[in-house]
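Bump. Still looking for Ras-related protein RABB1c structure tokens.
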Amino acid sequence: MSYAYLFKYIIIGDTGVGKSCLLLQFTDKRFQPVHDLTIGVEFGARMITIDNKPIKLQIWDTAGQESFRSITRSYYRGAAGALLVYDITRRETFNHLASWLEDARQHANANMTIMLIGNKSDLAHRRAVTTEEGEQFAKEHGLIFMEASAKTAQNVEEVSSTLHYTPQLSFDSYYMLYYYQLFYRVLWYYAGIYKNCCNHIHKDSGWSF
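Sorry for the wait, here they are.
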């Protein structure tokens, strides 16, 4: 299927937090209970429409193992957004968020939108990280926050809707930059005409603009 624009997203976080399962829900709307560990990177795609334009969201699922971190870092380049995922039943995955966030902000575009996702909300009875802790971490670091379940699909569409909004921000930023540049090109054009005019008028007097 053809598309007008392509936006890249990356899913990051510790191994076993459910990144691949979230990707499967985003793209195929299904849950696979047994999933092999991601080796390197995998990706899926989803088509959306904004302002009657077909947009392709390309979502990259990265390996969470430390041995693949150097590979993961290369995929931050060009990403419009990132999903930073932890497992609400495993405290250590929450404790490692700062390290993942530091990586993302060091290797990605400074304007990249980052969304924090507390996955496996269907296992709330085994919760090791409170919702309030997730909210506080997101607030302190300027992230969007949501808890979700790749198994039951709880809030997965809401996460997806947030991804849909990010390209609109990119469009707005693009057009703002375009008109900003256009304004200054016109300004400098007329400044050049005015300068030449003044130099011509005052060439005998020795004045210059």
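The chain has two domains: 5-171, 173-208.

Edit: fixed formatting.
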